[in-house]
Structure formats: C-alpha cells, structure tokens
Automatic annotation (TrEMBL):
The keyword Transmembrane applies. It comes from Trametes pubescens. Its main location: endoplasmic reticulum. It comes from the Eukaryota. Pfam families: SPT_ssu-like (PF11779). It is found in: Endoplasmic reticulum membrane. This is Uncharacterized protein. It is a multi-pass membrane protein.
Amino acid sequence: MPPSTVSDPAYYTAAMSYHEWKREATIPQILFGLHCPYGKPSSPIARFFWRRRIWIEATFALSMMEPWERFIVMYVMYAILLALAFAGFFYLPHHLSFLHARAAYYLYGSDAAGAADSLTRLKDAASWGINASIENVSSFGSKVLSRATGSPEL
C-alpha cells in the first residue's frame, strides 16, 4: 500500500515543525518568548525555568490562546512579579526594621536595654522551652522585677 499524503498544503508547513519542537530553548526564550519549545533544556537553571513555564502554560491553557491573549496573560503575570519584587526590595527592609523596633518595645519595654542585657533575657526566655525548671523561672522573674522596681533585693 503506498504511503498516503495529506491534501492540505498547510499540514506540511505547520506552525511548529519537528525541529522547532525538538530544539533546546535558551533562558530568554523560556522567560520572554511567546512560544515555548517543548524540548527539555540541559542546563539546570534553564530546566527550572522551563518547568515553571510549562506549568504556567498548562495551568492557564496558553497553548489554546491566540498570541495576543497569551501576551496579555504573560504581561499580567510579569507585572505582578515585578510589583512583588519591587515591594520586597524597597518596602521589606523598612518593614523589617519597624517590626524589630516593635518587638524590642514589647520584649524589653519602652527604653530598649543594652544588647548584652537583651541577649541574657532572650537566653533566659529560650531556656523555658528546653529546661523549664523552677529556678530558671524564678530567677528570670526576679531579674524582671528588680529592673522594674530598681531594687536588687526583693
């Protein structure tokens, strides 16, 4: 039986040929290309990004979309990632210092004590979970009361 040929001429000029389908993608093509090649990259970093890209394409059915729809989905995704990166880079350090100051206020009182004193209190507080003996608890309590009253003796 002779091999059958397909009468549609567009069949042989498909959007993605075998060589296009089989080629190994570079990182910029994986991150920014509208069409992601399906050949797995050999580089570990490229493979990581390729797996995420294939996961996103399968989740949002990007292969079923028109190129302009795919562009909009990718644009929104990159805009959200850019906003998160911007917030992490510019806002997070300030917020961490704010949280540190608030934690110091609640742990050490309105006037933050010296670093050595703070470390001692932190070690005492941490020892409660490991060594919850009456001596540790009472010695920590007497230290706190002596600081509050200003008297070394109770």
